[in-house]
Amino acid sequence: MSKYIWQEFKRFIIKKRLLLIVILIITAAFGVINVSKTKTLEGQLQGDKALLNI
Predict the structure, then answer these.
(1) In whole angstroms, what is the distance from residue 19 CA to residue 41 CA?
(2) Where are the beta strands (DSSP E) in the chain?
(3) Can you say whether the dihedral through the CA atoms of 34, 39, 42, 47 is positive or negative?
(4) What is the rounded distance in angstroms from the CA atom of residue 17 to the CA atom of residue 10?
(5) Which sign, positive or negative, has the C-alpha torsion 32, 33, 39, 42?
(6) What's the CA gap between 13 and 4, in Å, rounded?
(7) Residue 54: its pLDDT value, please?
(8) So what's the pLDDT on residue 36?
(9) What is the Rg, in whole angstroms, of the alpha carbon atoms belonging to the chain?
(10) Which domain of life is it from (predicted)?
(11) What's the distance, CA 27 to chain centroid?
């Protein structure tokens, strides 16, 4: 019985670990997307400043 409980516990931990890894990958992807959008907005701001200075 104890062996069965240990096996189920290990299976549960592995599932949770996989879920955590997937969540971390998704979070990193959203972070990269937000950083790239920020750089794009900075470029647009530079262009708008140049237009205003004309």
Answers:
(1) 33
(2) none
(3) negative
(4) 10
(5) negative
(6) 14
(7) 63
(8) 81
(9) 24
(10) Bacteria
(11) 2
